[in-house]
Each structure stands twice: as structure tokens, then as C-alpha cells.
Design goal:
heterodimer, A: 281 residues, mainly alpha, MetI-like fold, two-stranded antiparallel sheet, 2 strands, 74% helix, 2% strand, B: 350 residues, alpha+beta, Rossmann fold, OB fold (Dihydrolipoamide Acetyltransferase, E2P), six-stranded mixed β-sheet, five-stranded antiparallel β-sheet, 8 helices, 24% helix, 37% strand
Chain lengths: 281, 350
């Protein structure tokens, strides 16, 4: 239909884009992770020192484990909050469906930074929550563990990623033909039985997609721990940032990034396969 | 009806300002194949969904074996449905689809396997048991949907336009299969369709629904031979409506006249196209018949028969069906038996 020259012309910009901003940086990252630093200079000689350092220093492992723990908890909370919300809007709101859907989506238009800051004002020692607790005499002084803790990171990340979990779950619920619900009821299934044998299994691809979003995005998050995490709430991305910044150890930072990247790719590959297996047409 | 399985009493339903069903009363006998026939928007699907439990009547009662079912949720009614688009569970195999109802009612394993296999054999789908519903054809999905409903041995099987998605040939085949299957299992079928041919072929009785009102409930022969209203006469098959008046025992419809015992006043008769035939010029008109000359305007050849469009002396258009062997044109003599002109009443505007 179209000539070869035309096809090439159309395909070129995205290919160049991907090469310049994805492939080349990843290749550089890969190379850096096998180099080293000496003083202020990067030594371009191949070495496994960075990876040895990662294994030797338990700090990296424990931060990564904490990041994974926080991400897993965020994922669980996001799905646990997002699923009932999506189910309610999809199946039990006929007239206000569009409005409620928009209400869930609208926070996504607000800058992530603003929302993370909002939690800072809510959870801070003279913040909204502490003032309220003291005002109603539920606590005498400000509760220090609210802000600058893993809990604060958890709350902030959950608030941000619940919408990301909600969207694919909602989409999968909307795709379930309503006559399947009627068929199950017609065949004698009670409401809960119908839910667990028809709606839930058919919504699983959406649940997995939502969980993947929440996990991958929160695992690599660095703003929330930076703003509300404090020293006990730092996550793996904060380490990467400091290695590339203040510590000026790009090779080690590259090695940490690459490990994280490989982990994420493995998760994406697994969930992709799982979703494929659970999708029926 | 003494042995009515399903009784519907004065059922009313409105959606907002729209009155979908108006005082519908209908009995269905045990073992009967009843078709609810109507155009789209006539309320036929709403009536079926009420029997299944997916809609609540605003007023009236629905009972099975004398026990009211209208307050019960769909899962507690002794009724199963074959849905219009089959509604097979895409994540379950053909076997598991059919087993669904039995698993819900906790039928023991050995019994369950046997019943599912029997149901699949009944619809000739045994060898597809392990397949996914998405991998089989529309006609096969139809059979599975049927097996999934029948395996529960419902007192009543509801079928919501189950053949509408199939192509014409498969549709005709399924019509005969469905009818013989119904005889075989002896379960009462309530079948919904907008296709009058389908209704005629399959049903023991037809309930013709028009704008939420039951127009006539009768067997296919009776509803065709003795339609009560102009709507029924026109909806079931083709007909000629002859409008006229009775004065002093004589009917006068355009240029047709015949003696009658009807009371004086306006009348409408339905005369089927096949009841008008070519008259033999050489012979006298038989007793109790009407002869007339008409010009043939158009002929539509259908193979075994031919449909003629006539204009008679009064300028009225008439349809005539006759054996399609002669090439007719110009002015021709026709006749019909007075007994074949069936008195019908005008259907009120909806």
C-alpha cells in the first residue's frame, strides 16, 4: 500500500527515539556497572568489583528487601482497596458510574509531588492528623512515628498507586458480559458463589495488571521515601540517587540499578505470562 | 387450565413511563412448548426475564405448580434459561459449563459426571467436553447452553431467542432438533422469538404479544386459520384485510357482496392469499363463494408457488398465492369461499 521510503520515514523517528533515550542509556548503564572509580575519575577497565560490593555489603540487600516489602504491602493494600471500589462502580452504580469513575481518575491529574507533600502536612508533628488527635485528646503529644517512617511511605505510596491498581481492575470488570452473572444465578448460584466462580476468575488478568503496576512503580519510587520516609524509610532508589550524586560512584549506582532493572523485568515477564494464561476470549 | 405448570396472573411492568406489560395472564401446561411471539419492544423478553427472576413484576403473580415464585431470587426458582448469546462461562471447559449447576447444588461426583455426560450426549456434544467454549462454533455453543440448562432437570426451560444468532440453514435444523429434544425430555419449554415462522414450526401454542398486551394465545393452526384481530392476521403469515359493512344480512366489502348472519355495522375480514384461487370460466361459481375479476399487477415467482398482486374493480390491492405453473397476465377471474373470510376485530392503536 505504502512505498518503502514512506514506511522508513514514518518508522525512523520512533526508532531513533528508542535508540537514543532507551537502548544507548541502558547499554551505558550496563558498561558503567563493570567499571570503577578512582578519586574523581571513572576507570574504564572491566571489573566485577561493584557486584562483589553489592553482595558483601549487607546494607544493599537489606534496603532492597525493605523496598520489596514496602512495595509488596503497597500492592496488597492497593488491590484490596482498588478491587472493591472498581467492583462497586462497575457492578452497582448504574447512573453515577461515569462521575465516580472520574472522581477516582482526577487525583491522577494532580502532580505526584503535590500529593506526596500533602501527606507531609497531614502526617507531620504539627500536621493535620496530630493536631486532630490532640484536639480530641486521643494523644497528649504529637505522634512521631507518623512522619519520616516506613509507615508514612506506605500510606503515601498506597494513596498514589491505588488508582493505578484500580484502572486495569475496573477495565477487566467492565469487560465481563453481564449475562454471565445472570447465567450463574439462573443455574442456582447465590450472590457470593456467583462472585467467586464467575466475576473473580474473569477479573484476574486485571488484578494481576493492577498489582504489577503498583508493585513495579512503588519498588522504584524515590520521591515518597525522600519526602516522608526519613532515615528508616529509605528505599533502593534513594541509594541509587545518592550513589550517582553525592557519593559520586556511578559504577556502583549502575550496578544497583541494573539489579533492580533485572528484577523488574523478571516480574513483568512472569505477570505477562500469568495474565495471558488467565485471559479468555 | 387444570394441569397448568406455570401460571401468570395479571402481571404488570413499567420502566419509567413506559408500560412494558399490561395485565398479562397466561397459563402454560406441563410438557407444553409455548412460544411467546412478538416484535422487538413487545415486552416478550421482559416477560421471560420475570419468569427467570431477573425482573420483578410491579403487580400480579407468577406461580409454578401453584407456588408463587415471583418473590424468589433467580437461583431459588425451578427454572433454567438458555440465553440469547448463550452466556457460556469463557473460563470453564464445556464439561465444567454443563456441570456448573450440579456443582452448585452439590450433586455427588459420580452422579455429576454421569449426568453431565448424558446431557452432552443428548445434544451430541460429548466429544467436545474438554474444549473451551471459545473454540467451538455458534451452533455448538448453542447446544452446550442447552445441555447446561437441561442437566439441572428444571420444571421449566426458558429460551430467549436462542436461534437468532445462527445462519438460516443451521437455524432450521436447530428448530427441528429443539422440538424433538423437547418431546424427548418432556420438559416444559417457554420459547421467545420475533420470528413467526419459527413460532409456527415449533410450538404447541403461540402467545402473541403486542405492546405488552397478549393479542391471542392459540395453537399454530388456529392462530393462523382463526386470527382474532387485524394485528394477529397480519403478523402471522400474509393476509388480505377486507373492510366493509353489514346491512340487513348482507356483507359489502368494496365490490364483494355476500349474505351473512353478522349484525349490522362495520366489519373486517381476513382472507389468506392461498384462499383466493383462479376460477374456471366454463363452470358456475360453487355455492357460498364469491367471484371477481381483477387485473394482475405483479407476479412474484417462489418456485412451488407464485404470489400475485391484483387490483380488483374497486381499485383494492389483493394478494393471491397460487401454484406457480401458469404465466398469468391481464384481467383474470378469481373466486374464494365465503367461509375462508374470517371476521377479525380492529386492533387498537398502541
Amino acid at each position: 500500500m505504502y512505498g518503502r521510503a514512506y514506511k522508513t520515514a514514518v518508522a525512523l523517528p520512533p526508532v531513533v527515539w528508542v535508540a537514543a533515550f532507551l537502548l544507548i542509556p541502558y547499554a551505558l548503564l550496563f558498561c558503567y556497572s563493570f567499571w570503577s572509580v578512582s578519586g574523581q575519575n571513572v576507570v574504564h577497565a572491566w571489573t566485577l568489583a561493584n557486584y562483589r560490593e553489592l553482595l558483601a555489603n549487607s546494607m544493599y540487600g537489606s534496603v532492597l528487601a525493605r523496598s520489596a516489602r514496602i512495595a509488596a504491602t503497597v500492592t496488597m493494600l492497593s488491590v484490596l482497596l482498588g478491587f472493591p471500589l472498581a467492583y462497586y462502580i462497575s457492578f452497582h452504580c448504574s447512573r453515577r458510574k461515569e462521575l465516580l469513575y472520574q472522581l477516582v481518575i482526577i487525583p491522577l491529574w494532580v502532580s505526584y509531588l503535590v500529593r506526596a507533600y500533602a501527606w507531609k502536612t497531614i502526617l507531620g508533628s504539627d500536621g493535620v492528623l496530630n493536631s486532630l488527635l490532640q484536639f480530641v485528646h486521643l494523644s497528649r503529644g504529637p505522634l512521631g512515628f507518623l512522619l519520616y517512617s516506613p509507615l508514612a511511605v506506605l500510606i503515601t505510596l498506597t494513596h498514589i498507586y491505588v488508582a493505578f491498581a484500580f484502572l486495569p481492575i475496573y477495565a477487566s470488570l467492565e469487560h465481563i458480559p453481564r449475562n454471565l452473572v445472570e447465567a450463574a444465578r439462573d443455574l442456582g448460584a447465590s450472590g457470593p458463589r456467583m462472585f467467586w466462580t464467575v466475576i473473580f476468575p474473569l477479573s484476574l488478568p486485571g488484578v494481576i495488571a493492577g498489582a504489577t503496576f503498583a508493585f513495579v512503580l512503588s519498588l522504584g519510587d524515590f520521591l515518597s521515601p525522600l519526602l516522608v520516609g526519613g532515615p528508616s524509610g529509605i528505599m533502593i532508589s534513594n541509594i541509587v540517587v545518592s550513589l550517582f550524586g553525592a557519593a559520586f560512584n556511578w559504577p556502583l549506582g549502575a550496578a544497583v540499578s541494573l539489579c533492580l532493572l533485572l528484577g523488574v523485568l523478571a516480574i513483568l515477564w512472569l505477570t505477562e505470562r500469568l495474565q495471558h494464561r488467565l485471559t479468555f476470549h | 387450565m387444570p394441569d397448568a405448570l406455570l401460571t401468570i396472573r395479571s402481571v404488570e411492568k413499567s420502566f419509567g413511563a413506559m408500560r412494558v406489560l399490561r395485565s398479562v395472564t397466561l397459563d402454560v401446561a406441563a410438557g407444553e412448548f409455548l412460544t411467546i411471539l412478538g416484535e422487538s419492544g413487545s415486552g416478550k423478553t421482559t416477560l421471560l426475564r420475570m419468569i427467570a427472576g431477573f425482573e420483578q413484576p410491579d403487580a400480579g403473580e407468577i406461580a409454578i405448580d401453584g407456588e408463587r415464585i415471583d418473590p424468589l431470587p433467580p437461583n431459588r426458582r425451578p427454572v433454567n434459561t438458555v440465553f440469547q448469546h448463550y452466556a457460556l462461562f469463557p473460563h470453564l471447559s464445556v464439561f465444567e459449563n454443563v456441570a456448573y449447576g450440579l456443582r452448585v447444588s452439590k450433586v455427588p461426583k459420580t452422579d455429576l459426571d454421569q449426568r453431565v455426560e448424558e446431557a452432552l450426549a443428548l445434544v451430541q456434544m460429548s466429544k467436545f467436553a474438554r474444549q473451551s467454549p471459545s473454540k467451538i462454533s455458534g451452533g455448538q455453543q448453542q447446544r452446550v447452553a442447552l445441555a447446561r440448562a437441561l442437566v439441572n432437570r428444571p420444571k421449566l426451560l426458558l429460551l430467549d431467542e436462542p436461534l437468532s444468532a445462527l445462519d438460516a440453514a443451521l437455524r432450521r435444523q436447530m428448530q427441528t432438533e429443539l422440538k424433538s429434544l423437547q418431546r424427548q425430555v418432556g420438559i416444559t419449554f417457554v420459547f421467545v422469538t420475533h420470528d413467526q415462522d419459527e413460532a409456527m414450526v415449533m410450538s404447541d401454542r403461540i402467545a402473541l404479544l403486542r405492546s405488552g398486551v397478549l393479542e391471542q394465545v392459540a395453537g399454530p393452526r388456529e392462530i393462523y386459520r382463526r386470527p382474532r384481530t387485524t394485528y394477529t392476521a397480519q403478523f402471522i403469515g400474509q393476509t388480505n384485510l377486507l373492510r366493509g359493512t353489514v346491512t340487513h344480512g348482507a356483507v359489502s366489502c368494496g365490490c364483494f357482496r355476500w349474505a351473512s348472519r353478522e349484525a349490522d355495522g362495520p366489519v373486517i375480514f381476513s382472507l389468506r392469499p392461498e384462499d383466493i384461487r383462479l376460477a374456471d370460466e366454463a363452470h358456475m361459481a360453487p355455492p357460498r363463494s364469491v367471484r371477481f375479476r381483477a387485473r394482475i399487477e405483479r407476479t412474484m415467482f417462489h418456485g412451488s408457488s407464485e404470489l400475485l398482486e391484483l387490483v380488483d374493480a374497486g381499485g383494492r390491492t389483493l394478494l393471491v398465492e397460487c401454484a406457480g405453473s401458469r404465466d398469468l397476465h391481464g384481467e383474470v377471474l378469481f373466486e374464494f369461499a365465503i367461509a375462508d373470510a374470517v371476521r377479525v376485530t380492529e386492533t387498537d392503536a398502541a
